[in-house]
Amino acid sequence: MVHSLIEAYGLLEHMSVVKPRVATIEEMAKFHTDSYLEHLHKISQDGDNDDPQSVDYGLGYDCPVVEGIFDYAAAVGGATLTAAQCLLDHKCGVAINWAGGWHHAKKDEASGFCYVNDAVLGILRLREKYERVLYVDVDLHHGDGVEDAFSFTSKVMTVSLHKFSPGFFPGTGDLSDTGLGKGRWYAVNVPLEDGIKDDRYYQVFTSVMQEVRAQFNPEAVVMQLGADTMAGDPMCSFNMTPVGVGKCLQHVLQWQLPTLLLGGGGYNLANTARCWTYLTAAVLGKTLSSEIPDHEFFTEYGPDYSLEISPSCRPDRNDTKHLDQVVSTIKGNLKNVV
């Protein structure tokens, strides 16, 4: 649906579409363990859900074993690596893989619908050239897998704005989580409550990111843009629209650094397509008609057939004074970055 809507708006004519390659086991093993990849490959061949070892690798429940899942995961990882390589080769300033953003996967464990962590693989590829890479995550859920991967290094800073509430997956990403060892202060977490809207989110985002850029001085950026923050998403949490997320994206793009954009969550499929199509247009500097063009999935956008997403009447549970304190604490922490 995402690609079809982007195509229907004629946006493909204004960008280079690159055929992605499939990641090799060796490439995925830059982060994931051999034993995990071998097990995922083995059970993927027949969709075996009964292998007792699968539980140890996080397979089952929210990461079900289905036939061909290894090939799919390798394709997603390969697409992000292809996009990262385009940046390294100076073929573009912004590269996009909306199928990526699998930010929950761990070194030896699938988690939260994520079987490989393509974001980590992309960052590692960019690190072959760029000394300091910034990871920015605006998905509804904490980017725990990426933060964990780089928690001990000062070469990658991770910034995640997410819902933080008792019992809400993955249960990590508190304000006090700032990294470990040499990586202390290089993990930035912005915990938020339900109902936050565009203006307040953007205010928090820019306040944090201005300080992040000033203190960390990144050479490249990877940004995960999960669409489960949208109003109307089944997660029923944040109250955002593509316009608000687009403003956050533009704030990062104005730095004019090599930037890799990834997808992520998004469980209202039509709204996810709306969001990522709007963001694609924002990257290209294009303004889109509010009327959804006629195409294969046109009927999925009823009953209004509009590109816009309207915020709901959900109350904003975020206290202004508390948010100010969160931002102030983060700015204080960032003063320790050297």
Automatic annotation (TrEMBL):
Keywords: Chromatin regulator, Chromosome, Cytoplasm, Hydrolase, Metal-binding, Nucleus, Repressor, Transcription, Transcription regulation. It comes from the Eukaryota. The active site is at H104. Pfam families: Hist_deacetyl (PF00850). Residues 2-282 form the Histone deacetylase domain. Substrate binds at D62, G112, Y267. It is found in: Chromosome; Cytoplasm; Nucleus. Its cofactor is a divalent metal cation. A divalent metal cation binds at D139, H141, D228. Its main location: nucleus. One of its GO terms (cellular component) is chromosome. GO terms for molecular function: histone deacetylase activity, hydrolytic mechanism; metal ion binding. InterPro entries: HDAC_I/II, HDACs, His_deacetylse_dom, His_deacetylse_dom_sf, Ureohydrolase_dom_sf. It catalyses: N(6)-(2E)-butenoyl-L-lysyl-[protein] + H2O = (2E)-2-butenoate + L-lysyl-[protein]; N(6)-acetyl-L-lysyl-[protein] + H2O = L-lysyl-[protein] + acetate; N(6)-acetyl-L-lysyl-[histone] + H2O = L-lysyl-[histone] + acetate. One of its GO terms (biological process) is heterochromatin formation. Its EC number is 3.5.1.98. Belongs to the histone deacetylase family. HD Type 1 subfamily. This is Histone deacetylase 8.
